[in-house]
């Protein structure tokens, strides 16, 4: 399953290739509360059909009406991109359903050959991060590669002359081990727009494992990690409980650019794993501190589906850069729950 940005770009390109006029809309800036963050994309064709979104629906309705009333030329007053702002006044904010005090600034551009959507999509498929610079005077687009491992904030930049947006490869989840837990995690990850790869060299485990949209690999996990070279949009989670499979994959994943590396297991098994990786494979304490083990947030999970929810919640929290603000990780939650005074605080602070 494609992530939303890729789907919007691919749909817009497909409409254009069939001869339909298309407007690509980008959320450039927001002030106060806003339904969609900067960088969000939406495309509208000449028939008023849409993909993606820039608000809760009311702004979309206004944009569609503009196109229905006067065509793409009404939405983009000239060949050059158009900047629109919604929510400047309280009346307009109310009219378009924006939160109190919310303002959103949009850039509308006609999709043409100079929009360079095809090479942008190709770069994303090849897992290359790209800066797309749109000239607001001419509509010309320049695509600039972003160095591997670069840690920019990815927030669009808008000035009088250009709009710069950042598009990267689809978020990817690599799961070590084919089983019930990996199936539930895969289903959740697909719905969240992740590319999912499940790796298990054990034929008996793979025999009955199949899920549409998921790549199933029979490689040794460490060979897969070395081949894929996880980037900053990749998460790796070891689920087999077998050190022969998990440990070697974790060693390579922890030394990659992966934004999240985790492994399931009890607190005791997690401590033993950490000791093995340090003593036998010479991983530093600083490197081991980046390993999430036991993986997941503490939500009192019992079933495979609940454990999958716990782990995916932590993966998304780390991806979004809010890990420090999330509910308690599993190990700390269980430890605090064993002490009544601490346990009450954990339960009160858990929002999952």
Q: Domains counted in the coordinates: how many?
A: 2
> Ranges with pLDDT <50 over ≥5 residues?
342-352
Kindly provide the radius of gyration, computed on alpha-carbon positions and rounded to a whole number of angstroms.
23 Å
Q: CATH superfamily membership of the largest domain, which one?
A: NAD(P)-binding Rossmann-like Domain
Distance linking N and C termini: 26 Å
Order of helices and strands: HEEEHHEHEHEEEEEHEHEHEHEHHEHHH
> What's the overall geometry?
elongated
> Class of the largest domain in CATH?
Alpha Beta
Question: Which band does the percent of strand residues land in?
Answer: 15-25%
Strand order of the largest sheet: 12-11-10-13-14-15
Q: How many beta-strand segments? A: 15
Q: What's the architecture of the largest domain in CATH terms?
A: 3-Layer(aba) Sandwich
Broad structural category = alpha/beta
CATH topology type of the largest domain: Rossmann fold
Averaged pLDDT = 85
Helix content: 25-40%
The biggest sheet, with number of strands, parallel, antiparallel or mixed sense and barrel status, is: 6 strands, parallel
Number of helices, counting only DSSP H or I runs of 4 residues or more? 14
Protein name: Xanthine dehydrogenase accessory factor
Pfam families: XdhC_C, XdhC_CoxI
InterPro entries: MoCofactor_Util/Proc, PreATP-grasp_dom_sf, XdhC_CoxI, XdhC_Rossmann_dom
Domain XdhC- CoxI: 15-87
